[in-house]
């Protein structure tokens, strides 16, 4: 890939892009898109429904219209098709939870220079935050998972597998879709007790209560009691330091029956660790939110698997929308 050619204009565009970001965050946080729904409303109508200042609400609606998320006709505002389908809570395609998760990260990102100087996080883990932050994080993971899991489950051959471990599975999006595509498969979502309500709601929503269950546990501290023939670890390694990642992988491999398979899905850096862009930026996000978390390179993950005794270690030809990848290994 050719190096980026920078100009003052491009640098200033990036520097001020947070204006657009904060405008989107405000629209979603105030639930503007749900309030408008399929209707056409004036700024006064919207201000009344969200108990806001009409002048300020009109400014926000105008900015969202300039961003082509709303359509302004006369003095009335309507959703664009994208605004209605992606940003209204009445839509099954709603991605506002992930946007609200990003909103909760803004304060720490605005102080990145302090984290770089101290090497210490500036916020608590999203999975351990207050209820609103936890909901945004977990259901945001559902939003992201739904953009990947349905198609990935079709492409992943688990027809000879019977029992899947979804370690740190959150709302269980991947476990659910693996089971939907494999009627013989049972799955355990193994995660913290605070995750249970979100996972069980999602399991029930997809009608797989006979295949998927939730098991409470802390993968850093607790044993994995049962035996499995396939394990799925999606976006959990980046939250931990190298030592804990090695222990997690060793614990998982030990829970696999002979012939079992481990699949690690994460934002994977090149072995030079200076790209791709999203995993490199995500390392900074982990600096801000965890004591030791980071993105890992392909070689680092493969070396951890090898040290845990896994064989036939390889990266499969999958690339997620934010440069996530999957590395697999088998147990003899």
From TrEMBL:
Q: Name one Pfam family in it.
A: Dimerisation
Q: Does this entry carry the keyword Methyltransferase?
A: yes
What are the O-methyltransferase C-terminal domain coordinates in residue numbering? Answer: 127-309
Keyword list, A-Z: Methyltransferase, S-adenosyl-L-methionine, Transferase
**PROSITE patterns according to UniProt:** SAM_OMT_II
Segments spanning the bilayer are none
Which CDD domains does the UniProt entry name for this protein?
Answer: AdoMet_MTases
Annotated active site residues, numbered on this chain, are: 238
Q: Please give the superkingdom of this protein's source.
A: Bacteria
Domain O-methyltransferase dimerisation residue range list: 13-88
Q: Biological process GO annotation list? A: methylation
**Which is one GO molecular function term here?**
protein dimerization activity
Q: What is this protein called?
A: O-methyltransferase, family II
